[in-house]
Amino acid sequence: MKKLYLYYLTVSFIISSCSSIRVAADYDRSVNFSSFNSFGFFEDGISKVKISDLDKRRILNAIENELISKGLKKSDNPDLLVNIITKERKEVNIYNQNFGMWGWGWGWGPTFGLNQTNISNSTNGTLFIDLIDNNKKELVWQGIGDGYLSTRMDRKNERIKEFVTSILEKYPPKN
């Protein structure tokens, strides 16, 4: 029973760790980020992203809300252009657990135990958010978020917000 409890504890830890988003950011250290007051979306780049239009809108709305909450204004002639890139990969995880013991008698005896195999499928995704200086046409900041993507439709919007919020916590950079 103790082994079974340990097994379920391990599986629940693995599942709960899937919800975290790993985030990194890189930026041009010579740029004064306080000089950027407005943003707009880089339509040419965003149109090439190979995800559904619904997910694209979810991501762009979440980015817009986060940047506005940071004091930037959406503009037709922005200081910053926002571009996104997405990547997706499927993962298959196989957990094989053997519980029990061997029985020994004359020579070798029958086995007693339980063999349990669990297979889980998940999709991991990476979201890149690029901020481009519109005057210089140069990338000045890039945030990357990597984590589990929800397949449940009722959690999709929430998960996208988690990704965007986690990534944009790194903007503006603290020198």
Provide a descriptive summary of the structure in words.
This protein is an alpha/beta fold and 175 residues long. 30% of the residues lie in helices and 41% in strands. The chain has helices at 2-17, 43-46, 53-69, 153-168; strands at residues 21-27, 38-41, 73-74, 80-102, 111-133, 138-149. A 6-stranded mixed beta sheet has the order 1-6-5-4-2-3. The radius of gyration is 23 Å and the shape is elongated. It starts with a helix and ends in a 7-residue tail after the last helix. The model is unreliable at 4-18 (pLDDT under 50).
List the topology elements:
Layout: H1 2-17, E1 21-27, E2 38-41, H2 43-46, H3 53-69, E3 73-74, E4 80-102, E5 111-133, E6 138-149, H4 153-168
Parallel strand pairs: 2-3, 2-4
Antiparallel strand pairs: 1-6, 4-5, 5-6
Helix pairs in contact: 3-4
What is the strand tally? 6
Mean pLDDT equals 84
Strand content: 35-45%
The shape is elongated
Pattern of helices and strands: HEEHHEEEEH
List unreliable stretches of 5+ residues: 4-18
State the major sheet: 6 strands, mixed
Total DSSP helices: 4
Whole-Å distance between the termini?
53 Å
- Biggest sheet strand line-up: 1-6-5-4-2-3
Helix content bin = 25-40%
Question: By helix and strand content, what is the structural category?
Answer: alpha/beta
Report the radius of gyration as a whole number of Å. 23 Å
Keywords for this entry:
single chain, 175 residues, alpha/beta, 6-stranded mixed sheet, 30% helix, 41% strand, elongated
